[in-house]
Structures are given as C-alpha cells and as structure tokens.
Amino acid sequence: MTRYLASRFVVFGAWAALFLSGLFLAPAHAHKPNESYVYFDVTSDSLTGKVEVMRRDLARLLTGEKELTEPLTEAEVIANQRFFFDYFKDRIVVSHNGKQLPLTFNAISFLGAGPDGFAKLHFDVGGLSVTPVALELAYDAIFSDIDPTHRGFALIGSNTRNGMETNEGYISLVFGPGDAAKTLFLNDRETDEMALAFLEQGAWHVWLGLDHLVFLITLLLGSVMVARSGQWEPADSLRSSLGRVILLVILFTLAQGFALAFASFSGVRLAPLLGTALTTGLIVVLALGNLRPGLITMTWMIVTAYGLCHGLSNASILDPLGADAVRVALGIGSVSLGLALGQLAVVLLLFPLLYMLRDLPSYPFVALRLGSAVLAGLALIWCLDAATGAFSGGGEAMAGAIQ
Q: For site-directed labelling of 211, which of 6, 81, 104, 378 has its Cα 20 to 30 A away?
C-alpha cells in the first residue's frame, strides 16, 4: 500500500508541477510592491547601509494619503530628502550591547525609472570602532502609520569579512506590524536558530491557516467512517483509521515539500488568487466525498493535489532564505517538519473525539454531512473574500493568518 501510494505520488506530482508551471505560474522577483529593504554593507571597521523604498510609498508618506498611487519624481524625492531622512532615522533603530548607534543619512540614488521605481536612502552607522558579529535591529517604517500590509526586509548587501560581494536575494530579517527588535547577524544567521524558526513557522502556519484547518478537519470527519453498501458505517479499527490519517498527513507534507522545492529552485510561484481557487475547490471536492458514501475513492490524490497547490502558492514563506541552495533546502526540511508536527497535533487532538462520537446515530448526518457542508461553505466564503474583499476586511485578516 505504502509503495503504491509513493509511486503514484511521484507520477502525479511530477505531472501536476509541469502542468501548473506551464499554465498558471507567475515569476518571482526580488523587489516587489509594498515592500521596503534595509541593506547593510559590512567591513571589519565600518558599517554603512541604505533603505530601498518605492517612490510611490514615499509619496504616501509625504502626503499622508494612504491610497495614493502616483509616485514622486526623482526631483521631488531629492527636494524632500530631509523629510525622508528624518522619517527613516526615527524608524530604524540599530543597537549593540544595549546602546543605540547613531545613523547619519547622507545621499539618495535611484533604482528603476518607471512608476514602480525605488529610491535608495544611504546612511552610515556610527559608534563602532570594530564591526561586531551581530546587532539588534528594529524597523517600523510605513506599516506602522501608512499601510499595515507593508513588510520590511533587512539584508546584508555585502561583507568584506566573509567575501560576499553582492547580495540581493538572501533576506536576513522580516518586519511587520508589532514586531520588536530582532538580532541581525552580520556574517550569517546561525543555522540551528534558522531551522528552529522555520519549524515553528511551519507549525503555526497550520494552526493559524483557515484553509489548512478546514481541509484537515474535513478529512478527519470522514476518517472514522467507512462506506459499505452505499451507507456510512463506523470504522472497526482505531489503529487502521488513525494510521490512514497519518499516512495522508505524510503524503501532504511530501507533496508540499516537493512544491516548495520546485518553487524555490525554479523561481516560479502559483499566482495567489489561482492558488486560493484551487485549494478551495479541493476542499469542496473532499467535502462532497463526505456527503455521499463512495463518491470520492481516491482521497490520497486530493491530498497530494492540495499539498502541491498549497506549496506553490505559499512558497513566499521561504523568501527570507534568499538564493542560498543549502539554506533553502534546510528551510524546506524545517518548515515541512513543522507542518507535519502541526498537522499531527490537530489530528491527535480531534481524532480521538471523533472516533468516540462515530457510533452515534446522528454522526453521519450532523458531523459528516452537515459539518462538511459548513466547512465547504467557509472555504467558498474565504475564496470569495480573497477575490473581492466582500466581507469588509475579512480577506486581509485571513490572508494574514495564512501568510
């Protein structure tokens, strides 16, 4: 059985990945809208840097108009450079051994000439005679007062101490609303700390992700029943039923890991709205299988497809690792382990309860049919909200949980 599922998974996963990459995948890129970047250039005795931020975001900062989309011209940025220098100086805090280090902004340059062009605000970090291995960094620009969906990234742009000349891909830290100061390793982040962080992120991704929980609960509702003669009947063996669920969790984890690797190393991603539509469709299909015994007989294929779609549409979880193949591979392994542990925690919490309730005469209708219909409805509402924002901000909250 295990060998059969593994072989089918490889074939299906390969074809699915090729199909999706050919038709529906959108290229990933380094600099994206609604993001700003703080680069640090390291030598043994100096630390300099720059903030790269869209000229469109600078226009919003200057005017206070959150919905403004027209970017400032380069001349307008230079004319207002003192305002921007003061703004980012107040929102970037660099510390060492509990002491805040002074920042001096001194120049502006530009990246890209179109409406999505970036301005580079250059600065020096003072108060250091010898550059340390690590610093404390706090950053709360733009998302703190203009746009809560904005994200800030910290990167080591270059480091003469370890021979790194130019880095545009490996992101060291990610900042969002409410984030406290974080440790920035100027040489590199310690491997064990990075792996632990991604393991935790994988687990929380399950527990806070509405789509993932709905899919998993829909799967569990049917896991304690078997179809016999067109009717749902209680499963006879706890061990067999639980073992099947665990096998499906492993299958999902492998499929998502495969998709994360494909997305990370090929540089392509599943477009977000399409990913939402596909995962919603798979949840509905799984729920339909609970409504009518024997309707869906290849649950493993649905789980595999869900893992592939989920991985391809959530590959941004690995963006902080940049293009370092070894670290990306470690990140995939860590986040996959976290996903597996997060799912198993949900299974071990809910499966015993559902197994005890399966003998109730009302279980096939109340839990299996009605419960699955409600879960499918939640998935459809989530999909509609993601596409249209119809539920007054609910889409942003759910997207935040999933991301």
A: 6
